[in-house]
Amino acid sequence: MKALVTGATGFVGAAVVRALLNTGMDVRVITRPGSDPSNLRSLKVEQVLGDLRDKASLREALTGCRHLYHVAAHYALWAKDPSIFYDINVVGTRNLLEAAREVGIERTVYCSTIGAIGLPPGGGLGTEETPVSLEQMAGHYKRSKYLAEQEVHKLAAEGLPVVIVNPSAPVGERDVKPTPTGQIIVDFMKGRMPAYIETGMNIIDVDDVATGHLLAMAKGRQGERYILGSANLLLREVFEILSKLTGVKAPALKLPRGVVLPLAYLNHWFANLTGLPPRIPLEGVKMAKYKMHYDCSKAVRELGLPQNPPEIALEKAVRWFKTHGYA
Asked: What CATH class has 2-172+203-230+293-307?
């Protein structure tokens, strides 16, 4: 049996590939010319070139596969040209799933994001059923992933065999880029966190996210979504864990969001002017308004999602970033 994995050179995608190989699955990955291959080195996978915006290349990549794991996305908090989020995350997802239907893929797992899950207006834990709208999506990444999910739901209603997973904030090894969450860890390790804005996040080991993809393929219900998350933490608590792991002192100064927001707008304007990524991502500051805490019990109950402690995941990330010269 062969599975196609998109986004295999990325953080979550590479973990999914390794999880599949550990089960004995034959794996084909689709990569774009010029993508960083370091996460695939030494792995016995079949690599084909393609692009989510090129439907013909997708049909060719899918031919001969039974399962599809669509993990690829443009994941960032800023881009000089925001259209890339919609071209890859929305149009690309529709192209891929339509091609999967045309070639007869038996089952697909689509990797969405926790950002497409709603949060209760009065506080509390978000669930797969919490109402949410496009207007509540902060930033182009979240908006594009929300719209991509709508495309997936539409195709599922038409009979496409697909299950949706919504990872929270994965941390661990091989965060090459790194992701926005990984960048927080790197900045902390470098002592670049003199102050912070209090917020909340849900941390999960990236290897558990990968396992969750395989469990969703095997056990997930058609058209359903599953939050792949674990521990709800305040950012202050994350820093306390990192301090114990690294010996770096956790920042003591907590800044009001209202103080940082104007600086983020100014930094965003400067980034658009220069083309250099902002040091204070505007969308990150906007999202800090919410405690991104979620109820992950559906995936635990129905799929058997592992719940390893966040300390283990953060220790893996710290060790990997240190070993590979990030900090």
From this structure: alpha beta
**pLDDT digit string, tens, across residues 308-326:** 999 999 999 999 999 999 9
Domain ranges of the chain: 2-172+203-230+293-307
- 141-196 per-position pLDDT tens digit: 889 999 999 999 999 999 999 999 999 999 999 999 999 899 999 999 999 888 77
237: how many CB neighbours lie within 10 A of its CB? Answer: 16
Alpha carbon dihedral 45, 51, 52, 53, in 10-degree steps, equals -170
Long-range contacts of 89-94 (CB under 8 A, 24+ apart): 89/141, 89/144, 89/145, 89/147, 89/148, 90/144, 90/147, 90/148, 90/151, 91/52, 91/53, 92/52, 92/53, 93/52, 93/148, 93/151, 93/152, 94/148, 94/151, 94/155
- How far does Cα 97 stand from its chain's mean position? 19
Structural contact between residues 101 and 155, judged by C-beta atoms closer than 8 angstroms: yes
Q: Is there a contact between 163 and 220 (Cβ–Cβ < 8 Å)?
A: yes
**Residue 283 tokens, joined:** 């969308």
Comparing CA positions, the residue from 150, 159, 188 lying closest to residue 171 is 188
